[in-house]
Amino acid sequence: MEFIDPALLAYCQDHTSPEDDILKHIDRETHARVMMPRMLSGQLQGKTLELFTKMLNPSVILEIGTYTGYSAVCMARGLSRGGKLITLDINDELEEMVRGFFAKAGLTEKIDYRLGNALELIPGLEGNFDMVFIDADKINYGKYYDLVIDRMNKGGIILADNVLWSGKILGNTEKKIDKDTQALINFNKMVQEDPRVENVLLPIRDGIMMARKL
Ligand SMILES: C[S@@+](CC[C@H](N)C(=O)[O-])C[C@H]1O[C@@H](n2cnc3c(N)ncnc32)[C@H](O)[C@@H]1O
């Protein structure tokens, strides 16, 4: 489901800074060699993440769900000197390719890429976070939120992708609500009712929930 008229979407893309050769390369290789290339953030969301990072100036970002590294490259590019991005993914089959992309982008110093189940890796990470991007399995969004919320610095931002789930969160079709959709409905409600944050659901691409720790 497209959320805005395709012509308007094209207009938005035409008026957003274009991808450079590295991001074009990641996009092309992902589409040519990897399953489910739709998971990649893409130009509009990637630039949004880069600019959010530049505005927030975080020291530490945690990304849950690296995939082929497109969003990681965008956020790492927004970091100031000394800032770092920890990015986690369970899929080790993509490791060589992803490390190659980070090297090509000149970002190996800024990106700490770790493989494993994020539910197990996060408790072992040291320190707090200034920005977290949740973009892994939808069923565990609530658990990821619970794992990071008390480790967010004051004013820190949690971003969660795909919270509109192609519109399925409205539950207004004949079909039974599936587990991922229900998990996202629960997640959005949980954030909305959490007194520890102020939040806005941005209708960018498939929806980004932004929650700021008070
Ligand atoms: C939507 S993709 C991430 C897209 C990426 N952030 C981007 O914008 O280009 C989701 C990723 O989450 C990973 N994932 C799923 N379950 C996970 C888990 N329990 N721990 C860590 N990563 C997980 C998948 O392997 C997949 O690569």
TrEMBL record:
It is an enzyme of class 2 (transferase). It comes from Litoribacter ruber. PROSITE patterns: SAM_OMT_I (PS51682). One of its GO terms (biological process) is methylation. Its EC number is 2.1.1.-. PANTHER family: CAFFEOYL-COA O-METHYLTRANSFERASE 3-RELATED, O-METHYLTRANSFERASE-RELATED. The keyword Methyltransferase applies. One of its GO terms (molecular function) is S-adenosylmethionine-dependent methyltransferase activity. The keyword rRNA processing does not apply. Keywords: Methyltransferase, S-adenosyl-L-methionine, Transferase. This is Class I SAM-dependent methyltransferase. InterPro entries: Cation-dep_OMT (IPR050362), SAM-dependent_MTases_sf (IPR029063), SAM_O-MeTrfase (IPR002935). CDD domains: AdoMet_MTases (cd02440).
